[in-house]
Amino acid sequence: MTTLIADSGSTKTDWCLITENQSIQISTPGINPFFQNEQEIKQLLCEELLPKIQASPINHIHFFGAGCIGKSACNLLYRPLHELFCTSDIEIASDLLGAARSLCGNRSGIACILGTGSNSCLYDGKNITRNIPPLGFILGDEGSGNSLGKRLISDCLKGILPTGITQQFLNKYHLTQADILQSVYQESFPNRYLASFTPFLSENIQVPEIRQLVEECFRAFFERNLQLYNIPNAEVHFTGSIAWHFKEILQRLSKQYGFIIKNITRRPIEGLIRYYETIY
Fold first, then answer.
1. Which pLDDT tens digit goes with each residue over 209-256?
2. Distance (Å) of CA 45 to CA 8, 38, 79, 240
3. Residue 160 DSSP label
4. Helix or strand or coil: residue 279?
5. Beta bridge partners of 109
6. Is 139-214 in CATH node 2.40.50.140?
7. Where are the domain boundaries for CATH 1.10.720.160 in the chain?
8. CATH number of 3-99+269-277: 3.10.100.10, 3.30.230.10, 3.30.420.40, 3.30.565.10?
9. How confident is the model over 51-99, as pLDDT tens digits?
C-alpha cells in the first residue's frame, strides 16, 4: 500500500511518499491552478516529481493546494495525476483543509496559514465549517509573505522607512524602482516575488520601523480575519514560514486579541504524515 501526500503553496510543494517500510519527503516548485494551466502542471510533475519517485504503483493520492477551490480548478490537477499515476483514488482539496488536518487532527479549532498567502478556517475535527475568504494577494492575504513584501517595498519607495534601511534593502537585492514595477506588474507570480523579500524583514526585525511594519500586517490578519469568527478565547493553530519566523510577534499579538495559540509549525506536511499514517 503506497500513499502520496502533497501540501502545495504558490512557492513550493512538499510531497511525502508513504510505503509499508518508509516515508520519503520530496520538494518541488509550487503548483497553483489559479496561475498554471493543466499542461504546465503536467510538465512540472513530469520534470520535478516523477524522477524522484522510485516506488511501486501508488494506491492513494491526497493533494492539498493553494487555488484548489471548485471543480474546474481541482480537475486541472486530477487529470494529470490520474494519467501519470494510474489511480482514481485521488483526493484534491484546499491547502486550508490540509493545514487543518495537519494542525488539529481530529480536534476542533481555528487553523491558519501564514505563508506566501494567508488563510484561516473553523474546523470541527473533520471538515471546514466556516472560512473568512482570504481574497488573494490583491484584495486580501493579510499577514502573508506577499503582504509583508508589498508593504516593505511600498514603504521603501515612498520614503516612509528610514533612508538607511531603504538603501540597505535596494542594495541587498540590487533593485531599482523600474525593476520592481516590471516584476510586480508584468512578470509571472508577483505574489512569489513580493514574498521573497520577507527574509530582509526577519534580518532587520530589531529596527523599530520594521517591527512596526510586521506588527501592523499581523494586526490586519487578526482584525480582518480571526476576529470575524467571533469566538472569544478560541484555540488557534498556525502553520507556514511567516508564522514560524515571526512567531514571537504572533504569540504576543494573539494574547492582545484574546486568542490562545496551541501550536505553530513551519510546514503542514509533518502533521499530514501523522494524520494519514493512522488511516492506512
1. 999 999 999 999 999 999 999 998 888 999 999 999 999 999 999 999
2. 13, 11, 12, 23
3. -
4. coil
5. 123
6. no
7. 139-214
8. 3.30.420.40
9. 888 766 888 999 999 888 888 989 999 999 999 988 889 999 999 999 9
